[in-house]
Amino acid sequence: MQGTGAGMSTVSSVFGAIDQKRSLNYQADIADINSRLNEMSADQEIKKGQFQEQALMQDVANVKGTQRSSMAANGLELTEGTARNILESTDYMAERDLETIRTNAARAAFGQRTQALNYKNQAAAYRMQSDQISPFWAGATSLIGGAGNVAAGWYSMNKYDSLLSSSKTDSSSGSGLSRPFSISKSGGKRIL
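User: That's the sequence. What structure does it adopt?
Assistant: Structure tokens below.
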């Protein structure tokens, strides 16, 4: 009976280790997918920033065109004085806005790439855990532990039988020792 239990425990340990390896490898695959998605998101953040830059430059060109035509219509010289200062101020503000767009895009991409790296590291950790699991050794360890329990059970049973045998011999020889057990008619032992 104990041998069957040890065998079942061994089989259970082997399949448990196989399932654990599969689960860890699956989690690693999901982490790899998430890493790739974050890399793609980082690229999208950069492209989004580039589109925002282009849109801003188009808006600035429209504003400057309107400024030039308005100032020229009022007879102002565009290369000097107030007109020149207004156009330079427009360029300066546009450059600041461009830097803000670039910085925001770079930060967003950095965040996505950092998360991608975290997922890559997580995938590597899952794979390392999976590599540490050996269904063979899990089964062998379980079998050795089960064999120890079976051996202990056999040892206890043999010790009990040997005590019972010596007790019968001692009481029948008149040594004054009493039997700790009586035998029923059905052959079972019971404690007195």
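The first strand starts at residue 181 and ends at 183.
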